[in-house]
Amino acid sequence: MLRLVIGDKQLSSWSLRPWILLRHLGIPFEEVSLPLDTARFREEIGRYSSARRVPVLLVAGLRVWDSLAICEYLNEHVEGAAWPDDPDDRALARSISAEMHSGFAALRSQWPLRASDTGIASPLDEAARADVARIDSIWSDCRARSAARGPWLLGGRYSIADAMYAPVVLRFNTYGASLSPAARAYLDHSMTDPNLLDWIEGARRELAAAGHAI
User: How many helices (H) and strands (E) in the chain?
Assistant: First the structure.
């Protein structure tokens, strides 16, 4: 069975991406959770990853690290089904996933993932507001292209693109991002995803186990 090493569900945006893709693809896996920024993490992460970061996918003797690399590995595992079937849609999905993977630094730093929280007021600077506007444009353009085919970014099937933006969905939900109607509709739909709700519930359980008020 596959094993996925992740960080805290409350905090680890990179861990969420392959985790939720595995869930949507229906691939069984064992979850290994290491709380970030703790002595336990520092002591144990080396046995799983020479990069000393999460997530890491363990497959027999193979170790795959980096969330996008793991998602691409899983795509091969399901014979390409984790990307859209249409070549143009697939190219767009890869482009916006790569942009998410390498960009939006201002938004990441100013609105860190707090998966189970809502109603946090935290004003953004100009750079982070530009990040929000760019993501709104991406979501709106994708939905205009694919709305007739289903509710996800590129149609009726959940793809790597949706997984890559799942942490942004949670950030926007936590901090109350102001979005266009099309982007808001995508966020609202994403927040009904049972897999994302399971991640949020897992974050709440972790916080409760650690003695934090929820």
Answer: 9, 4
Residues 6+ apart with CB under 8 A from 160: 21, 68, 71, 72, 75, 82, 83, 93, 97
Q: What is the pLDDT along the chain (214 residues), one digit of tens a residue?
A: 899 999 999 999 999 999 999 999 999 999 999 999 899 999 999 899 889 999 999 999 899 999 999 999 999 999 999 999 999 999 999 999 999 999 999 999 999 999 999 999 999 999 999 999 999 999 999 999 999 999 999 988 999 999 999 999 999 999 999 999 999 999 999 999 999 999 999 999 999 988 765 4
**Token pair recorded at residue 111:** 């609105």
* Alpha carbon distance, N-terminus to C-terminus of the chain: 33
What architecture is domain 87-196? Answer: Up-down Bundle (1.20)
Two tokens at 115? 């998966």
Q: How far apart are CA 88 and CA 77, in angstroms?
A: 22
For the chain, give every domain's residue range. 2-80, 87-196
Q: How far apart are CA 110 and CA 106, in angstroms?
A: 6
CATH of region 2-80: 3.40.30.10
Token reading at 61: 């003797």
- Other CB atoms within a 10 A radius of the CB of residue 63 amount to 15
